[in-house]
C-alpha cells in the first residue's frame, strides 16, 4: 500500500493565514479601516496601527489608543461590527483590487483531496471578513470555518492555535 493512500483515522489540521499567504487585497484594508474609524468615532483617522501579523482586535485597540481613545469592550464590538459590514459592502472591490497569491489555490486543492487533512484558517481577520476574502477568490470551499481561529477570539495571535485545536477536538477529530 502506498503511504499517500494510507489513512489511519488520525487527522492533520492545516491552518492557513489569509493575508499575504493565500490572498492580497492591496491597500483596501487600510481604506476600510479609515472609513470605519470615522463612522465609529466621528473623527478622521490620523494614524492606523501597524497591521502586519496582528488580529483585528489588536489593530482596532492600538489604533484607538493612537488617537487617545480607550478601547472598551463596547467600542471594540461596535468597531468590529462596522468593520465586518464595511468589508461585506466592498466585496466587489476585494475581488477587483485583490488577487490570489501564487500557489495558494494549488496548495489548498492538493490538501483538499487528502482525507487525513482538515484545512482551516488561523487569521487576524474577523470570521466574516476571513470568509469574504476567501470567497471573493473561490477559496472558501477548501477550508472548514467552524474550526478556525479569528481576529476577535484573542488579542494576540499565539493563543489562536490552541483555540483552533480545541474547536477541532470538539468535533471529535484527533490531532
> Mean of residue pLDDT?
91
Low-confidence stretches: none
Instruction: Tell the overall outline.
Output: globular
How far is it from the N-terminal to the C-terminal residue, by CA? 23 Å
Please give the radius of gyration in angstroms. 18 Å
Side by side, the strands of the main sheet go 1-4
Helical segment tally?
7
Q: The CATH topology of the largest domain is what?
A: Rossmann fold
Question: What is the CATH homologous superfamily assignment of the largest domain?
Answer: HAD superfamily/HAD-like
**β-sheet strand percentage:** 5-15%
CATH architectural arrangement of the largest domain = 3-Layer(aba) Sandwich
- Main pleated sheet: 2 strands, parallel
- How many strands in all? 4
Q: Order of helices and strands, N to C?
A: EEHHHHEHEHH
CATH class of the largest domain: Alpha Beta
Q: What percentage of residues falls in helices of 4 or more residues?
A: 40-55%
Structural class: mainly alpha
Q: What count of structural domains?
A: 2
Amino acid at each position: 500500500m502506498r503511504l499517500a493512500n494510507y489513512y489511519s483515522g488520525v487527522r492533520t489540521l492545516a491552518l492557513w493565514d489569509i493575508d499575504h499567504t493565500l490572498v492580497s487585497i492591496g491597500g483596501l484594508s487600510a481604506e476600510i479601516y479609515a472609513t470605519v474609524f470615522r463612522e465609529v468615532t466621528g473623527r478622521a483617522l490620523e494614524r492606523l496601527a501597524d497591521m502586519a501579523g496582528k488580529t483585528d482586535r489588536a489593530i482596532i485597540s492600538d489604533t484607538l489608543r493612537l488617537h487617545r481613545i480607550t478601547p472598551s469592550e463596547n467600542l471594540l464590538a461596535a468597531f468590529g461590527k462596522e468593520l465586518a459590514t464595511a468589508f461585506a459592502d466592498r466585496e466587489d472591490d476585494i475581488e477587483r483590487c485583490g488577487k490570489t497569491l501564487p500557489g495558494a489555490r494549488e496548495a489548498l486543492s492538493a490538501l483538499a483531496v487528502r482525507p487525513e487533512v482538515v484545512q482551516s484558517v488561523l487569521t487576524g481577520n474577523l470570521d466574516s471578513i476571513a470568509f469574504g476574502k476567501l470567497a471573493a477568490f473561490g477559496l472558501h470551499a477548501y477550508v472548514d470555518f467552524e474550526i478556525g481561529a479569528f481576529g476577535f477570539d484573542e488579542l494576540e495571535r499565539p493563543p489562536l492555535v490552541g483555540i483552533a485545536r480545541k474547536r477541532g477536538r470538539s468535533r471529535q477529530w484527533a490531532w
